[in-house]
Amino acid sequence: MNWLLVVVGAMVGAPLRYLTDRAVQSRHDSVFPWGTFTINVIGSLILGVLTGAAAAGAASSHLQLLLGTGLCGALTTYSTFSYETLRLAADGARGYAAANVVASVLAGLAAAFAGAAVAQAWWG
């Protein structure tokens, strides 16, 4: 049963990641990977809410598998973040590469903390 929850979550997360990435990136005329950045921040927010809900006893282990491991595991992407950062640096856009690393880490952490705070306020 657990693996099925992960699979179902991933079946939603992977196409959602692709479609959101394309939608966001198509609206920006920049080499900065806004699509991946947006997806990773959204995923961090979802995981923050889920973590806060789990800490408050409001999220079952099944929900954690479905949303945390399945959905967010397929939605967020460290490999694409790494590839895009490497590509920016290799193409001479080192400032964008550095900005991608710093902004992604800071925004991801801020989103996770904000999500946990929202969950704490809601269920705590």
Order of SSEs, N→C? HHHHH
Strand residue content: under 5%
Distance between the termini: 29 Å
Estimated structural class: mainly alpha
What is the molecular shape?
globular
- Please tally the helical runs, counting DSSP H or I stretches of 4 or more residues: 5
Average predicted confidence as pLDDT: 97
Task: List segments where confidence is low: pLDDT < 50 over at least 5 consecutive residues.
Answer: none
Radius of gyration: 16 Å
How helical, in percent, are the residues?
over 70%
Largest sheet: none
Q: State the total count of DSSP E strands.
A: 0
Keywords:
124 residues, mainly alpha, globular
Could you characterize what this model shows?
The protein is built from 5 helices and no strands. It has helices at 2-25, 34-55, 61-75, 78-90, 94-123. Helix 2 runs antiparallel to helix 3. The protein starts with a helix and ends with a helix. The mean pLDDT is 97.
